[in-house]
Write a structure and sequence with these properties.
By secondary structure, the chain is mainly beta. Among the domains are: 6-130, Immunoglobulin-like, CATH 2.60.40; 136-239, Immunoglobulins (Immunoglobulin-like), CATH 2.60.40.10; 245-322, Immunoglobulin-like; 405-492, Immunoglobulins (Immunoglobulin-like). The chain has four helices and 39 strands. The strands form ten sheets. Strands 28, 30, 31, 32, 33, 34, 36 and 37 form an eight-stranded mixed β-sheet that branches. It has a six-stranded mixed β-sheet with strand order 1-9-8-3-4-5. A four-stranded antiparallel β-sheet has the order 10-12-16-15, with no helix packed on it. The chain binds 2-acetamido-2-deoxy-beta-D-glucopyranose (NAG) (5 copies). Residues 305, 319-321 line the site of one 2-acetamido-2-deoxy-beta-D-glucopyranose (NAG).
Length: 571
């Protein structure tokens, strides 16, 4: 009784110890599908020489146990299994159970039971069998993607794995997330009823955008064992209907009459549209397999609004204005214009242009601030006139060469006494065109003629008048003659002091020229005057009655000088 109770206690302790060891030593062994799986026993906790019996059994489920094999210290391994395990099992020297051709059904608990001289230990091992998928396969690839339309892009399958593989879809090597923009991923797992292996299949539904034209799609499968498997990259033709349409006008700049204009209808879309309607101011011209239409030799009437549209979708229409530039000018008069001074010259400059234009004028290449006006032509109006009209890059020029002609007119005939008082300078200023020739009624000692500018010429002669004279300046050209006279008093009258001569005009037509002759006469006159001077005594105050152009101051000085000279002669 007492013994029994001790025995009961012993068996209780034994049971407790067994449970304890079992709990503490439960481990998991992972095997690869189809390969030989080694299930170790107790990991060397128990010394092999202490072991009397080693037995492997397995959990059949429903609390049933299946025996596999057994080895006693003296005997070799004997297989006691009678079920499917009997041909696949063996025991290694170190007591490991070797299980060949591992299957998913081997995923259960195997227990190694070790009988020692005083103890029985059990070492349960949990077996897991993994299998990497064989590969990833793409199926049901969409032929093309239409922009904005959710389309099943493809299905990716990772076959025969355990546990089931995870499939990820990638676009340009970046993962796509279900629920992301335009992305919908449906994944499912199918288990093979025979092998128990799982096949994961994942379908990507995708709304393409225009940017996806070159995108590369792929799927990859990840698994607990084996490296990541990736499918070949997939590309798709992205189709979309026309979103924008543009009418281009290909024309020279600026577009002028006679040029050719090509209208080009540019529409996007994939495939791109190939036929268009060109709307040419009321006419509709369909074109096929081209997107251009050429307007040849345009005229100002071509100016207007043009359109193009898609034949299949007339609502897609583009419009553009075409402007043909023109700049016509008409100047009257043109060429060589000969006019008489004093007349009026009416200018007409007509401008017909497609836009706003600007006119500028030059006379003899010098800019004028405004259009010339000739109410009363002057000789100075003669010149080369050019009007230029600019409109953008367009410019037109017209010109006329105006010559103002007319009979010459003497504007002024004047006289000056030279500074030394030895001679007089006569100046004849005339206006007329063509250049008038100037002649004098007397011969001078020197001549000087100004250049002929603006119809004016100035002629100077230097004379030494011996007597009071009326001198004529005559100017003439093909249009007429003008003459003027001027009274020139003798340079020597002062000393002659011959009052009788005052009224004697007969001599006035004569003129003694040249200093030599002049001096000779002067000497004679001085001699004559000397005698009279003696008689008249101190009658030195004299005056020339003529009005001269020189200043009165100058005149006075000259008189004094002449007086001085006469006094010297007296001595
Ligand atoms: C047991 O032996 C087998 C081969 O006989 C060997 O591959 C294995 O590593 C051994 N296991 C242990 C736990 O020593
Ligand atoms: C063309 O010109 C007309 C008149 O000036 C204007 O109403 C129209 O908007 C223009 N069209 C385009 C495309 O510029
Ligand atoms: C001027 O001189 C020329 C010869 O030199 C002469 O023939 C002419 O008569 C002279 N004229 C006058 C007005 O004295
Ligand atoms: C010149 O003198 C005469 C008389 O000597 C006179 O009749 C004539 O008007 C004068 N001419 C000029 C331009 O002064
Ligand atoms: C010349 O004319 C001046 C004034 O006109 C006169 O004083 C002078 O006497 C005249 N001389 C002769 C020679 O006629």
């Amino acid at each position: 009784m007492h013994l029994l109770s001790v025995g009961s206690l012993g068996s209780l302790v034994f049971l407790f110890a067994t449970v304890l060891r079992q709990a503490s030593s439960l481990e998991t062994v992972v095997g690869m599908y189809g390969q030989t799986l080694e299930i170790p026993c107790n990991k060397g906790v128990v010394k092999a020489e202490d072991v009397l019996i080693t037995k492997w059994k397995y959990d059949k489920g429903d609390r049933r146990v299946g025996d596999l094999l057994v080895r006693t210290k003296t005997e070799s391994v004997s297989i006691i299994a009678t079920d499917e395990y009997k041909d696949r099992i063996n025991m290694a020297a170190n007591s490991s159970l070797l299980l060949s051709a591992a299957k998913l059904s081997d995923q259960r608990t195997f227990t190694c039971m070790v009988v020692l001289s005083l103890d029985i230990n059990e070492y349960p091992v949990n077996v897991v069998v993994y299998k990497a998928p064989a590969g990833v396969e793409i199926s049901d690839k969409a032929p093309e993607l239409e922009i904005g339309k959710p389309t099943k892009l493809a299905t990716c399958v990772a076959k025969d794995a355990n546990p089931a593989a995870n499939i990820t879809w990638l676009k340009n090597n970046k993962p796509l997330v279900d629920g992301g923009k335009g992305v919908s991923i449906r994944a499912s797992v199918q288990v093979d009823p025979v092998t128990g292996l799982s096949s994961t299949s994942s379908t990507l539904e995708y709304s393409a955008t225009k940017e996806d034209a070159d995108a590369q799609f792929s799927c990859s499968a990840r698994h607990q064992v084996g490296k990541e498997l990736t499918s070949p990259e997939l590309t798709f033709t992205i189709t979309y209907s026309t979103e924008t349409i543009i009418l281009q006008v290909i024309a020279p700049e600026p577009l002028l009459e006679g040029d050719n204009v090509t209208l080009k209808c540019v529409a996007d879309g994939n495939p791109a549209p190939t036929s268009f309607n060109f709307h040419l101011k009321g006419d509709v011209i369909p074109v096929k397999n081209t997107n251009t239409y050429t307007l040849a030799h345009v005229s100002r009437d071509t100016t207007g609004e043009y359109q193009c549209s898609l034949i299949d979708n007339p609502a897609m229409m583009a419009s553009k204005n075409v402007t043909v530039n023109y700049l016509d000018i008409n100047l009257s008069p043109t060429g060589n214009v000969i006019k008489t001074a004093g007349e009026a010259l009416e200018l007409s400059f007509q401008i017909d242009s497609s836009g706003e234009s600007k006119v500028s004028w030059t006379k003899d290449n010098v800019k004028l601030d405004k259009e010339p006006k000739f109410n009363k032509l002057k000789y100075s109006d003669s010149g080369f006139y050019e009007g230029e009209v600019k409109m953008g890059a367009l410019r037109r020029k017209a010109s006329f060469d105006l010559v103002v002609e007319g009979a010459p007119v003497i504007k002024q005939l004047s006289k000056h006494r030279s500074e030394d008082g030895q001679h007089k300078v006569l100046i004849c200023e005339a206006e007329g065109s063509p250049k008038p020739s100037v002649s004098w009624s007397i011969n001078g000692t020197s001549y000087d003629e100004s250049p002929f500018v603006n119809g004016k010429v100035t002629h100077k002669i230097t004379v030494v008048p011996a007597v009071n004279l009326t001198v004529y300046c005559t100017v003439s050209n093909e249009y007429g003659v003008d003459t003027r006279d001027i009274n020139v008093s003798s340079l020597f009258e002062e000393v002659r002091v011959d009052k009788r001569d005052q009224s004697d005009d007969a001599d006035q037509t004569k003129l003694v020229v040249g200093v030599v002759v002049g001096l000779l006469i002067a000497a004679m006159v001085i001699g004559l005057a000397y005698g009279i001077y003696q008689k008249k005594s101190k009658q030195g105050s004299w005056k020339t009655g003529e009005k001269e152009n020189g200043s009165s101051e100058e005149e006075r000085k000259l008189e004094e000088k002449v007086e001085e000279n006469s006094q010297k002669a007296e001595v």
